[in-house]
Amino acid sequence: MDQVSDDIDQIRQAAEHREADALVAEDRCRPLREELAPLQAQGAFARRRARRKISDLQARLDDAERQAAESRETARRARATATARIATLSARLTAIADRIPLTREQLHAVLVDAERIRNAAAQAQRERSDRARDATRADQAVQRAEEAQALTDLAERKGWPVKHDQAELLRVTVAADTARRPELEKRYQAVQEEYERLARNAQGEIIKEARLVATTLARFRTNRAVFEGPYDVVLIDEAGAATLPEVLLATGKAGRTAVLLGDFMQLGPVIPNALKDQERDDIKRWLLPDVFQHCGIVEPTHAQAHPACVTLTDQHRFGPAVMRLANGLAYGGMLRGGARARGRRPDNDPEIVLIDTDGLHELARAHQTGSRSGWWPAGSLIARALVELHGELGEEAGIVTPYRVQADATLEALRDVEGPGGRPLAEVGTAHTFQGREFDVLVFDTVEGGADSRELWMALAHRQPGANAWMRDGVRLFNVAVTRVRTRLYIIASGERVRGARPGAALAELAALIGTPGVRVLHAKNLITPPHAPTTFRGEFGTALAEVLSRHVEVTDVDDERDFYRTFTDQIRQARRSLWLWAPWVANRVRSLLPELRAAADRGVRITVFIRDDTDQLQRKPTSQSLIADLRAVAHTVVPMYVMHQKIAVIDEHTVMLGSLNALSQSNTREVMLTMRGGYFARKLLEHEHAETFARPPKCGRCKGTEIEIRRWKKSWVWRCYATACKTGPSGRVNAWTREIRLKSGR
């Protein structure tokens, strides 16, 4: 109705405008007539003299009268049209008014009621959210109560209340004895000093009278009684692992004979990097070479040719397959076998098993912690299953790896399946730790991945011409690792890397044994498979190993993207404390996850997400930026990282999902994700990714903004402000604010 009324007013005003135009046109004629009339009233002579002006005025008057006549006609037609149109609209207005059941006052009242209802609905929604949070807090309180009840039950079973009462009684006794403690400590100190004096004297007398003294080189040079001797014969075992000054100090105490026992193809002395890095000729000449090198023994042929060297070529520890590998690596065929090496093994009982990690995707990608060192999840996972399998058979197993960081990761994984007494199921260490040791079963974790991983130390180890000391030491380490075994040696490595090893490399020696008696390849991707996948032939111990792996690992094989997201959604719903997510790209897939993430955040789960920064061409798209904004509205922290590629999810620091699938963008590609359970491994992974540190970006030191990303420059990580106004200088060049990230340990 208002619109029609407005139309009538506009039409009426338009007609009035036309009539006003006609009046204006008529008014223009009046001054012309008034000016022309006196001229025409003059005499003939005067009119003749003013004829030009009279003619001009007459022409202007005629034109003005013509325009006035046209304006009057236009105004008349406009008025007629307006009258007809107004009549039509008035009829329409009447018809509309007849159909409206409410008056203006009634309609206003309805609108007021509607606004009141909207406000009430919004208040109800807020109250509903408050009640939902109250319900979540109540659920959490119930969970805490249940945990407290469980702890109470455990305390009762363990007898802790009784022990607490006993402790309270003991505190009274302790308080009474506290006054006597200073005097007792003083008397203890005096007795201890007297004991040490007598022990030194007795030790010296015992050593002087002893026929045999066994000690370490370190104790030899630090214990005066041991150092003074005297000795007729000095035997130094593992001489290759000692420095020349240590050996000379000990052999100098020999009265008649000194004998050095050792293997020049095993690891040499551990020299601090601070000494190695010094470009001093005396250190290079006397400290860095081992004892055998000082004697001119570097190759097996040198040992045989040396007049003062006796070579012991018979070994009685391992079988023929490992002996062939050791001969190829280090001994040039000189090593011969005893009864164990000559014994025949059943065909289904291989001596060397290469666990081929190809096909495990992200799980088998080496994470570098140095130029040629690193760690990977595949080794920790498979080694854990192997030692558990052989532990059930009553066999002792050891796990050796070139890198301390991998040994630490594997030890953390083993703690999730601790043996009796809370001890790990197996010893884990580097080759330096295991030199001189032996095990029934040995797992050698090389940390050598496939084409998507950089070649690390074991891939570059060789003794060919041109090899530097680091490469030759790699062969010695490889040799130490594989010769610790008695019955079965497992080597975890990429089959592609082993088969593609350069001639003469340590891995090439292993590759040459594949297909020979006693050597078998087991594909890890056939051991770690989804429940619904067809089972491939694994053999007896391969089937047993797959069964052990299934206790600790759930595999989601993604064909149509539904399987993984069903598992992932369940994990999000079960989360109670934290969700860490590394997903490089964000796409429409995130929309289906946002409700689950929001529900998790509402019940107190802290959500931290790491994504690629917007220098990536996919991330900088407007659609992706909009989705990232939606993600930031739900997650507590979203941190951009430059050129990241990890695909990881860690739930409650206990469950790890790891593989090749990008959880926030995957659509229709076929990927693999593994779900592993274990708090130690989860925490080790978070530690390696510097999760806690990276999840706390600072404000920009220049603009005080929060648009902060992570970048890696050379060997350090830095915070970097990516706000356009802040990072762009007056000249238009990028000059972003950065700050080095201080880490507890480098990576």
Short characterization:
Residues 640-667 form the PLD phosphodiesterase domain. Belongs to the DNA2/NAM7 helicase family. Helix content is 52%, strand content 15%.
Describe the structure.
The protein is of the alpha/beta class. It is about 50% helix and about 15% strand. Strands 13-19-18-17-14-15-16 form a seven-stranded mixed sheet, sandwiched between helices. Strand 17 and strand 18 form a beta hairpin. Helix 14 runs antiparallel to helix 22 and helix 26 packs parallel to helix 27. It is elongated and about 170 Å long. The model has no long low-confidence stretch (mean pLDDT about 85).
The count of helical stretches stands at 30
Uncertain regions spanning at least 5 consecutive residues: none
What would you report as the Rg, rounded to the nearest angstrom? 45 Å
- Oligomerization state: single chain
Please state how the strands of the largest beta sheet are arranged side by side: 13-19-18-17-14-15-16
On the 0 to 100 scale, the average pLDDT is 86
Distance between the termini: 75 Å
Give helix % range.
Answer: 40-55%
Domain PLD phosphodiesterase: 640-667
Organism: Streptomyces litchfieldiae
Protein name: AAA domain-containing protein
Family: Belongs to the DNA2/NAM7 helicase family.
